[in-house]
Amino acid sequence: MRILITGTTGQVGGALLAILWDKHEVIAPPRPTFDFSAPQSLGYTLNKFAPDLIINPAAYTAVDRAEEEPELAFKINRDAPRFIAHWAAARNVPLIHFSTDYVFNGKCDQPSLENSPADPLSVYGRSKLAGEDAIREAAGPHLIVRTSWVYAARGSNFLRTIARLARERKELRIVADQVGAPTSARVIANAIEQLTAMEPCDLCHSFTKAEGVVNIVTAGETSWHGFAASIVEGLQSRNVALAVKLVLPLRTEDYPTKAKRPLNSRLDLTRVQEVFGITPPTWQEALEPELDELASEMQTTNIK
Ligand SMILES: NC(=O)c1ccc[n+]([C@@H]2O[C@H](COP(=O)([O-])OP(=O)(O)OC[C@H]3O[C@@H](n4cnc5c(N)ncnc54)[C@H](OP(=O)(O)O)[C@@H]3O)[C@@H](O)[C@H]2O)c1
User: For 112-145, how does the pLDDT look when each residue is reduced to its tens digit (9 = 90+)?
Assistant: First the structure.
């Protein structure tokens, strides 16, 4: 298949590129030639490469900054996906797009199903939901993959922030009342790779069976505090020298942020298992290879 992947400098796009480049003909247009802040300009590259499948992890992901620049967030998270979805629908090209647990308000105490009512709490969440709606309206073959708490050994994310702070500080205070499933970009890319192994008509059929949306996260749940404690423990057990002695729990209300976050970020995994036969690993299992990679980096360099 000729696959166009967006956002390959990001966590999910980078993991997708790493896993798919030698299995398919992969096109990864760099941001200057495929800029989501100018949605109309995307047609040139799409026409030029005429992909058989589009995978779209590119997004405006600065959750707090989005509160200050909602127009840009909506342009990148709604208008650009809308343009891509219409281009794809007109040619019957399947589109895999990524969305977030932040489309939910997190007030329910159960994991959200794919068809649970959306009620985003932030500009970022609203812009991502608007992107989902635009893709549904275009009505081409599509799959919206909702995921949560994405991290990787590389890039800029919670794992690396905790690793850096654990080197610098004796005590960390981390939010303990937001619950979710930390999901490595590698887990998401592995799941998508399984989809790309399908024949195009089977792929589109599975999208319909999934009603166009599926949750892909790791199994199990923890809090940001639980995740941070596991990162510290995992690095120490790999003999990484850290300054940190205590990882203390904090309440959301004691750590104010510009954007409001859902307390319950859990996403139900029944559909991904039933429709696609994919059983994601637990968040603890998924963390191991990322810690291996990060620990070997930390043994030789200072991380930023
Ligand atoms: N990160 C999370 O915790 C999380 C949680 C749930 C869902 N998601 C969703 O999962 C998907 C992948 O997230 P991620 O963590 O991999 O994101 P990421 O690491 O922040 O990467 C975002 C990518 O989008 C690109 N991008 C941003 N603005 C662009 C523009 N104007 N034109 C073209 N490309 C642009 C970035 O390019 P530059 O490198 O040039 O900026 C980067 O390659 C997104 O749809 C996100 O909403 C993420």
Answer: 999 999 999 999 999 999 999 999 999 999 999 9
> Does 217 contact ligand 1 (Cβ within 6 A)?
no
Task: Quote the CA–CA distance of 108 and 106 in Å, as a whole number.
Answer: 6
Q: What is the pLDDT of residues 201-225, one digit of tens each?
A: 999 999 999 999 999 999 999 999 9
CB 156 less than 6 A from any atom of ligand 1: no
Which residue in 60, 102, 124, 151 is the catalytic one?
124
Domains of the chain, earliest start first: 2-152+183-218+267-280 (3.40.50.720)
- Judge whether 183 and 218 are in contact, CB under 8 Å: yes
Whether 151 is catalytic: no
User: Using CA positions, which residue lies closest to atom 18 of ligand 1?
Assistant: 10
Distance 16 CA to ligand 1 centre (A): 13
Ligand 1 near 119 CB (within 6 A): no
For the Cβ of 60 lying below 6 angstroms from any atom of ligand 1, the answer is yes
State the Cα–Cα distance between residues 48 and 264, nearest whole angstrom: 43
- Chain centroid to CA 244: how far? 29
List pLDDT tens digits, range 148-204: 999 999 999 999 999 999 999 999 999 999 999 999 999 999 999 999 999 989 999
Classify burial at 30, counting beta carbons within 10 Å of its beta carbon; exposed 0-12, middle 13-18, buried 19 or more. exposed
